[in-house]
Amino acid sequence: MTKRICITEDSRSQALIAETIFADRGYEVVLAENGMDALYKINEMRPDLIISDVEMPHMNGYDLCRTVKSDTELKHIPFILLTLLSSITDVVKGLEAGADYYLTKPYNADVLVSMVGSILRNGPVSSNGDRAVSICMPAGDALLSFEAEPQKVFNFLHSTYENLVQENRHLLFTKQELRKLNNLLEEKVREKTMFLEGEVAERRKAENALKESLENMRKTVDGTVRALAKTIEMRDPYTAGHQRRVAQLSCAIGKQMNFSGDFVDGLEVMGFLHDIGKIIVPAEILSKPGALNEFELNIIKAHAQAGYNILKGIEFSWPVAAATIQHHERMNGTGYPYGLNSDAIIMEARILAVADVVEAMATHRPYRPALGIDVALQEIIDHRGTLYDSAVVEACRTLFEQGQFKFEK
Ligand SMILES: [Fe+2]
């Protein structure tokens, strides 16, 4: 015979879940929205078991239970209180109301079904005159004292035990899930770390390759610059080594003036190339002994512009073309080709100008013997601030006077 269960639950969704659980297992389910509604339906339909929520409007679960258990016609029906409440006070209230079982939410459907099955198989709860026992127990600061039938006390203890087992099972499951998640995270961190280490190694490799490639390129540029300088000097044997020595003195002056390593590197290239425009000057003029006429002088002077024209299309990381065209400009505007004055002349060209003059005067020329370093230094000292940059002259003078620089042969 189909067993009939009255489920009293004010939450519609909770009621439907409970209905499905029992209907699927062959029970007939009667739903009630609150205690009053349940009382009416229980009287009408006489269910075999009652499951009731505690907190409901109109009549709560305790009052419903108390009313059922005080009705001689109904008190034999097993009564399960199903609730979110779980303190000892709630349990005692349930016992006092006369409930037979107590289960906390969230409940496990299998536990509830097995409890209901067992109750219905074993018949109605004993309430046939068992002597009530007095129980006194602490609940927080208060002392609870009540009387209940031994069977019901046992049922409640059993329900509480079932609840604890269920809760423990849930905690164990959560712990296992957390451990799995933790392992997964550790694995992900390990994978990511390995990936990042690989990335770093790849990047380092790429950086080294780039550094090597830059170094090779620098060597190539350096070699090309030196080859170009050599080409000019082969046509003008009297100034052989002039550009190399100007490059060396320019670098020494740059360092003495505390310019950066990159700036000094640029001075070396400019020193090697500053006279490249002499390629347009006929060899016989370059090597002519004695004084040059105005026409020949003008051809010589054109080498600054010619050098600029050759170099302007090459992409250096320094202003090589600008320094080349300006290396014969003078601070007071008396130089060539444009007669620029101090502010318009770049620092690289001011350094080249001093190094060029000192080197040229200190060494032999087709039209005169070497004048010597002392005469060369006197020339720049006499004209510092007028023809030559004062700071550059000071740096150059210090280098020679303190024996920090000497021209190579
Ligand atoms: Fe020159």
Please characterize this protein's 3D structure.
By secondary structure, the protein is of the alpha/beta class. The chain has 2 domains: 4-168, Rossmann fold; 236-401, Hypothetical protein af1432. The chain is 57% helix and 9% strand. The chain contains 15 helices and 7 strands. The chain has helices spanning 12-23, 35-45, 61-69, 88-97, 109-121, 150-235, 242-256, 261-273, 283-286, 294-301, 303-311, 320-326, 347-362, 373-382, 390-401; strands at 4-8, 28-32, 49-52, 79-83, 101-104, 133-139, 142-148. Helix 1 links the parallel strand 1 and strand 2 (28-32). The longest helix has 86 residues, at 150-235. The radius of gyration is 53 Å and the shape is rod-shaped. The mean pLDDT is 86. Bound molecules: fe (ii) ion.
SSE layout and pairing:
Layout: E1 4-8, H1 12-23, E2 28-32, H2 35-45, E3 49-52, H3 61-69, E4 79-83, H4 88-97, E5 101-104, H5 109-121, E6 133-139, E7 142-148, H6 150-235, H7 242-256, H8 261-273, H9 283-286, H10 294-301, H11 303-311, H12 320-326, H13 347-362, H14 373-382, H15 390-401
Parallel strand pairs: 1-2, 1-3, 3-4, 4-5
Antiparallel strand pairs: 6-7
Helix pairs in contact: 2-3, 3-4, 7-8, 7-13, 7-15, 8-12, 11-12, 12-13, 13-14
Bound molecules: fe (ii) ion.
